[in-house]
Amino acid sequence: MAKSWTEAHQDDLEERYRAVRALTEALTAPLSDADATVQSMPDASPAKWHLAHVTWFLETFVLRDHVAGYRPFDPRYAFLFNSYYEAEGARHARQMRGMLTRPSLTEIRAYRAHVDAALTGALGMLQQPARALVTLGLQHEQQHQELLLTDLLHLLSLNPLEPALFGAPSAAPVDLPGPLHWIEGREGLVEIGEDGRGSFAFDCEGPRHKAVLRPHALAHRPVTNGEWIAFIEDGGYRTAAHWLSDGWGWVQGEGIEAPLYWKQSEQGWTRFGLDGRQPVNPAAPVTHISLYEADAYASWAEARLPTEAEWESAAQNVAAVSGNQLDGPACPRPKPAEDGSALTQMFGDVWEWTGSAYRPHPGFRAAPGAVGEYNGKFMSGQFVLKGGSCATPRGHARGSYRNFFYPHQRWQFTGLRLAKDL
Amino acid sequence: MAKSWTEAHQDDLEERYRAVRALTEALTAPLSDADATVQSMPDASPAKWHLAHVTWFLETFVLRDHVAGYRPFDPRYAFLFNSYYEAEGARHARQMRGMLTRPSLTEIRAYRAHVDAALTGALGMLQQPARALVTLGLQHEQQHQELLLTDLLHLLSLNPLEPALFGAPSAAPVDLPGPLHWIEGREGLVEIGEDGRGSFAFDCEGPRHKAVLRPHALAHRPVTNGEWIAFIEDGGYRTAAHWLSDGWGWVQGEGIEAPLYWKQSEQGWTRFGLDGRQPVNPAAPVTHISLYEADAYASWAEARLPTEAEWESAAQNVAAVSGNQLDGPACPRPKPAEDGSALTQMFGDVWEWTGSAYRPHPGFRAAPGAVGEYNGKFMSGQFVLKGGSCATPRGHARGSYRNFFYPHQRWQFTGLRLAKDL
Amino acid sequence: MAKSWTEAHQDDLEERYRAVRALTEALTAPLSDADATVQSMPDASPAKWHLAHVTWFLETFVLRDHVAGYRPFDPRYAFLFNSYYEAEGARHARQMRGMLTRPSLTEIRAYRAHVDAALTGALGMLQQPARALVTLGLQHEQQHQELLLTDLLHLLSLNPLEPALFGAPSAAPVDLPGPLHWIEGREGLVEIGEDGRGSFAFDCEGPRHKAVLRPHALAHRPVTNGEWIAFIEDGGYRTAAHWLSDGWGWVQGEGIEAPLYWKQSEQGWTRFGLDGRQPVNPAAPVTHISLYEADAYASWAEARLPTEAEWESAAQNVAAVSGNQLDGPACPRPKPAEDGSALTQMFGDVWEWTGSAYRPHPGFRAAPGAVGEYNGKFMSGQFVLKGGSCATPRGHARGSYRNFFYPHQRWQFTGLRLAKDL
Amino acid sequence: MAKSWTEAHQDDLEERYRAVRALTEALTAPLSDADATVQSMPDASPAKWHLAHVTWFLETFVLRDHVAGYRPFDPRYAFLFNSYYEAEGARHARQMRGMLTRPSLTEIRAYRAHVDAALTGALGMLQQPARALVTLGLQHEQQHQELLLTDLLHLLSLNPLEPALFGAPSAAPVDLPGPLHWIEGREGLVEIGEDGRGSFAFDCEGPRHKAVLRPHALAHRPVTNGEWIAFIEDGGYRTAAHWLSDGWGWVQGEGIEAPLYWKQSEQGWTRFGLDGRQPVNPAAPVTHISLYEADAYASWAEARLPTEAEWESAAQNVAAVSGNQLDGPACPRPKPAEDGSALTQMFGDVWEWTGSAYRPHPGFRAAPGAVGEYNGKFMSGQFVLKGGSCATPRGHARGSYRNFFYPHQRWQFTGLRLAKDL
User: Where does the Sulfatase-modifying factor enzyme-like domain lie (chains A, B, C, D) (predicted)?
Assistant: First the structure.
């Protein structure tokens, strides 16, 4: 959660509140009650659950704790929609979230409206700590907007009818990007981590701290689908030498042969997306790959993954902390790679796997209380991803952001950028 | 399927068609799209799937095969809604049925209307083999009506809100039944199995054949909840000596301590039903028990389960092949046991586990073609249940009926009647 | 256990005791400590465990219960070597039997010698009930002699070196058997089950009871390897229509393509045995097949499996209740089929799967106490096999014998004989 | 493997060869064939396999590749005893290692003698690269000496008889250590990693590189059993707030309540060791704990785990790179903690979990060829442990050593030392 953060204008928070909440509604507008209810795997949650959980977060940590006289919409919802906050008591088992055909989508929307009315009504009277929790709640909701889309994508991918939620891309001639350039990074002592002067950061992004970098370079753009097809065709998925041992076990145990959602037909590779099944665009960054695949590709390409410090240090020089991100209810889709002699597509398009394990920054301490469970307790077994994706809501990306997933997970818009030692 | 069966009146079939199809609609009328979509376990299917599958059966084996020029509603439905007919080609994996948020419940209802229009329009012109398939399809739909209810019950039982689909019973004073009487059965050679003269029977109910019975008696009524509580309180679930070896492994592995849907509170035992959570009625037959539990109870009671031949032979003397069965969209609920010196509650209330494995009757041969897969291929590992339950549609019970489930399964309305050697 | 059985001569029992115990020693003589310790799967037990368990059985039910002043060899052995007698208290978990590197094989042999000395010393003074328990213990040990060999076979089959425990067969020209003949069986009422007049029978073999048979015939000999190869080559393992539904799931889930221990090479099919890897003999009965495979084969051959009553009734006419059985420490190996117009190879060679579920004979009651757990509690989910195999000790076969295994199990010497309705 | 390393004297290598190989023989001298054959879990290997595998390593990478005319002892052993070197071809499945009752322990000892004769005979003629591989092979064997002991401990712990391999400790009065002191560490830039000037290091220990340290301190000694009991008694294993999320799942899923091998009785806590079951010594360092437990303890103690850089930097000041390590065939047993104002027990006693994920040091590149698989491919999902244990052979510990295990594993002698920010 925010450690040091000051609000400029009260109006901004209300405006932001309305904007974030409205985007969630817009993203879920095309869903049926059934679409919003089913859980496709234990890692994913139903859309209805996302809608309710982010609302429970605001209801609990803001309304319950900071607004006198607030009456909860339904006292049973705390059990249903707490995700993992042990301090908040017993909760419904994660893998059973898809059993909740009741309450209905309509009831959940009424829940949202109830909380929105109470919260916007109270916003003007909230003190700074409570306002900081509102901001945290909105950042939290933005995270769930991305998960909501990737969870829906996973669900729809399991339907043999392969339904599309959004319109398909217009057919356009593909311009393959030129060769990959190497951009030299800083060497020696650098500073990374959140410095407490930005508008918001999660607790795990700080503290600001020093790191040492060796001579190295980053690729100017992410690896493309076209390059990935070359990896496949060179036997990349069948050559043990490229793979981490755990990755090789995963490839063999799961029968992995391509990125998630890819299929091969006589017409070539296709991928499934929220716009249905479409041809793979060879110019666009590869996505829906695991850390294991990213690491194997880098090994095959005689390169390596960047460390988090290398990536974040390089990102400090990128002018626009923005890119191809989510602006509204449309299909998230990575855009073709760009040529150029500077770093491109650092923010947006695809989350970039780093070679850094998700462990605390030096000096990190979790916040006290339930919100302190937000990040710190997940710091084992996962890897850091940087930069944001085409499904990350605009405004939610920053250089210090630390996304994290297990090395086999790939239902997010995950890709990679190569690095090498100089 | 029916082996020898003649239609009396064409009108009857049409009338029956409309009645059976209408009951399915009525049973599912209270469901939301989400209620109808979720699959609660691999053994159960979503209501939407039941609605579509029974329709696919009629569409495929009647309209496609016997009505020239019929155009299928959607050619992709054959893949989605074939259950297990290998001869009909590839199909959607059973445990993935709950992923089908599309087609929607509304679309499935349109599918039903489409097939109903085509089939009732063609019915007058169908030849006898096709008409026999319509009858088979209706019997098949009746089976799924019962499964639909028990699958919904299982789904709703996993919702911590414990929603009720139907109204609750009115509170009434409980009259505990008097002592159990033993009704002597036939001895020596008897004939059981379907004799081909009834209005309909599934293929596995025949052929008619001789069996030898030893001196024995059946209890005049099923075991009640009150008696079951005595078994629990006597440590029945903790005493290995009562149990089959596989059953003891199941009790210990799953931590079984009571029938499915039962909970113990300070006020005593309650059970969950389609009318929500209610007190256990000690006068009603116990239900939602596995074969393992039924066998352990019988062992504890120094009795045994009846064989299928004993049960069916006894049932031949019961005047009304009917009882507390399903008549419409209301909560299925076993009725209190009756006193008396004759067999009571043989049909309806609860399916009665027998001690007979579900194996072919002597001389059984499966029908050729896809419908021949209806019963024969399930003849390993399962036990026969007789009589029908409160969720069995009226008209669907008969003495030769062979229901079958694995010995650990108990989400049906399953109970037991004791037998003993004389 | 024996229900009605009288000992002719005291000397016979002692002689039998020495002979049975000596055969066990002879069978295990070629084993190293390691060979005797490892457990290859939960269904199998280490040889050392078999050696100790049968000894514990005699020590417990005879010496402890009937010989005053007997001191157990080691009081901790009751925990280690009780198999499944719940009435005898807590015991070592079955799947952990292979962890017992101590006590050593040498210590277990000392345990056997200790019990043998005590028991043969006491034998002359034992009363009839105790003597019946000695007989039961010897029959029990004979069962374990067969399991010991099949468990060793399974263990050695998992060793890439494929070691042979016994010498290989001499190469001999193969005489393929002539065509299969059908031998008509009895029709109408027959009597089967143990009649209490034989020298010994397990409790589950009785009581003697009537059964009704329809017109039918049995094949004069078991199905051969050569016939099985024809089944394989005709796509038998890839055609769903032949298979029970559970069987088809097993074939696909486990990737089954041939009997256990078979491999295909350019030179044709080979099988692994206690004599190492050898060519499949097309004239010998097929073995190491599951009930699922046997049933699928019968379906493919447009026949069926015999019922237990058909098989046992037919066996009553076979003169010699004996055949190719185990006589000493040599490789058990089914012998080539014989021509002829009468039933051949009914006893010995391979256990023959019947289509009958292993359920109690009418009127069966388990014996009281721990030995009552011997058979009755296993009466769910398994099928009956009849006749005995090449690994069944001579003298241990009889027509009423009921062997039983789960339908997927096939590490015993299991085969089949076809039946058909007339 | 060694990247830069020069041999001083040829004689030393031969001497070292004999010493290392002899220790392995001595450690396994008390084992029976069965003890040496059984595999107690997939993570562990049989002693016989360790004996053969380290020999295969020398035979393959030294004798086969560098000694002309060498004839392998048995060409089938490459399949049996390759551990994980994909470049060396197909190999026996890891979890099936316990099925190898043949070759016998005696044969494996003959294999060792054969390779020893060939290798010591050739040693004088080997060039430096081959001599480096001999050194690597000996370091490799030392690693397996420790695994051999911990794998045996695990195996014997599963035997209800709880056999002791070595003599028990003499009962002695326990002196509880005084309070824990905090030793301030270096701040700012430090250098860690192997600098290529030592006598040997594995490839993953380098390259030497800079790291930045914040103000911090390390505890002067590891956490003791007595302190751990206080953690247990304070509900440490039942308080979610102390635990990493994955750790809490592990504690609940596995029912963890104490370190591995601990049991509670009326007389207090005992632990199982290679000296049998003994009372827990409250003065000795806690051992057989997972990273999850170590992290939860640190959280409870309001401290944290040291990073690898903090630990290694501190260790550079410790005079004796040695401690309570393995010197011969005796029971490894952590010694009571020492008081003092300097770091104690840094080397030996227990491996100390760090909070650092096992990832490559900056600039790391794996060696080419099969030996390059030695370390690099395991760099995901595991954590670094430092310092060595009472089961680490003397001479095998050094500050740059990077041991690594998954966060749930605890069958090694693993413990922890607290750290804190200043």
Answer: 188-316, 343-420
